[in-house]
Amino acid sequence: MSREAAISRAQDYFDSGDLKRDLARRVAMPTESQNPERAPVLEEYIVKEMEPALGALGFKTQVLHEGKWPFLFAERHEDDDAPTVFGYGHGDVIRGLDDGWDEGLSPWRLTERGDRWYGRGVVDNKGQHAINIGALRAVIETRGKLGFNAKYLIEMGEEMGSPGLRELCTKHKELFGSDVLIGSDGPRLTAERPTVFLGSRGGVTFDIWIDAREGGHHSGNWGGLLSDPAIQLAHAIAAIAGPTGQIRIPEWVPERIPDNVRRVLADAEVESGPDGPQIDPNWGEPGLTAAEKVFGWCSFTVLAYEAGNPRTPVNAVPPRAWARCQLRFVVGIDWEKVLPALRRHLDRQGFPMVEVAKSRDEVFHATRLDPDHPWVKWAVASIARTTNKNPAILPNLGGSLPNDIFSDLLELPTVWVPHSYPACSQHAPNEHLPVAIAREGLGLMAGLYWDLGEPGTPPKA
Fold it and tell me: What's the whole-model pTM score?
């Protein structure tokens, strides 16, 4: 038995077509958590797919519920003195958006085209936890055991903001207790470069709107006499962010980027890539590198804007204008102060008529493990040994995850090893997974899991 044999066995899982077959079966299950009609499929994914897959590896499994949301918890305990590793994945997916996929593709059918697998969930997140479970199996089959203790949690509501997850982890904190979280979600820095990220930016989504009056009024008779809420709201948004996207609310940005964060980001070059959009170099906070803008700073986005009737415009001054907005924020920003700061800022800028309200109850908190933490150094060394590549270290993901539940509530150091890339279309039609990432991911995870059973891991918590 050897580390190389475990890595080879994991990659055989890809080469034999077994990973593709397993993932195709899971993609065919339309686990849209945003669609209430799919509730039975969410439970089915856990009971028919994940419970047998982990049970076959010697995990003891139990289905837990918190509210209406199902969770699968699995545990394999081997040695009281060995480290305990907490794994995480989510089996729910964003809506399929069936009509938007290219001809011949479907969200509910895994299709191979060129060097990519297409289908809803191939990267977010069915493919990612399929890779990790395949790597666990390769280590068990090679060594005869894992060599460490493993716990795994799969939820079915992440795309809805992980309802019930915080309550579940509070209730079962002792049961879930571990030494480190090693999970996979989100994208690598680039398709070619293995990556670890150590937390996530927070995210709060909110609505701003103006209700000027009842009903529209003819623009020929009343234009120039009645305030136009669409124009007023546009100016209010311009007061929030400048013409190049720079945030104008001081409470929404950190005072500075910590030195250790700047250090690791100096080695993280953000690239557009052949499939991604072209980066606008002058957009965002002046004086920051592209990596610092995404992983070390905050960003404000207008997700949607509406006034009048966009589909069939009429000659009328609209009575109402509305926008849905989002702030992605880093550690140091208190999300509970975000909307009060916005209210004060709008009042100061002369927009008391603009209403403000949070648009969803779930808020992702910002988290960030110290890049110099022993588990970070250990994981990076393991991945480098397997791939002969220098992994990128991101202090946090640019997007949002319920990572604070693991880092703050369960008190775990969190190390994420993603098996995707930025242009994967994860929340859009044509979601896809490059096969090279899948195969490399199996190998690097098998190496990482093998190393967990060897001397040299960080001390137990």
Answer: 0.92
